[in-house]
Amino acid sequence: MMKSTTLITVRKELLLIEIFRKMENEKFGLKLNIQKTKIMASGPITSCQIDGETVPDFIFGGSKITADGDCSHEIKRRLLLGRKVMTNLDNIFKSRDITLPTKIRIVKAMVFPVVMYGCESWTVQK
Q1: Residue 69 CB partners (closer than 8 Å, separation 6+)
Q2: In the 8-state DSSP scheme, what is residue 88?
Q3: Where does the source fall among the domains of life (predicted)?
Q4: 53-54 and 38-39 beta bridge pairing
């Protein structure tokens, strides 16, 4: 079974170099399936002369990456998931038997990871 690979580059020339590097791996039994290749061009690269389906977005590391770099919908989705976790922990937070430091540790251990999952791919814009 072949594992999927994501190539991210800032220039078309670098993308071609990466594809040629993948083709070199065929010598060792690793093959690039051009028919299954999907391309998303963004920024200064608007098109590519490589066979494959052009897509407007794709999932990378659990986050949706779009050609225009907008990740606001992904951030909102993550915040809603974090709010849902907080709602599920409502009984714990209302309990007077649990100390405030313990409640803070619970938030750091259970809510923050849900909200921040995939944040490495979020873009920063004005």
Answers
A1: 42, 43, 123, 125
A2: H
A3: Eukaryota
A4: parallel
Would you state the structure tokens that stand for residue 51, as one six-digit string?
């066979």
Assess contact for 36 and 53: CB atoms under 8 A: no
Amino acid at 7: L
pLDDT in tens, 5-60: 666 666 666 666 766 676 676 677 766 666 777 777 666 555 555 556 777 777 77
What does the alpha-carbon distance between residue 126 and residue 109 come to, in Å, rounded to a whole number?
30
Q: DSSP string spanning 15-81?
A: HHHHHHHHHHGGGGT----GGG-EE---TT-----SSSEE-SEEEETTEEEETT---HHHHHHHHHH
Spatial CB neighbours of 39, under 8 Å, sequence gap ≥ 6: 48, 50, 52, 53, 54, 55
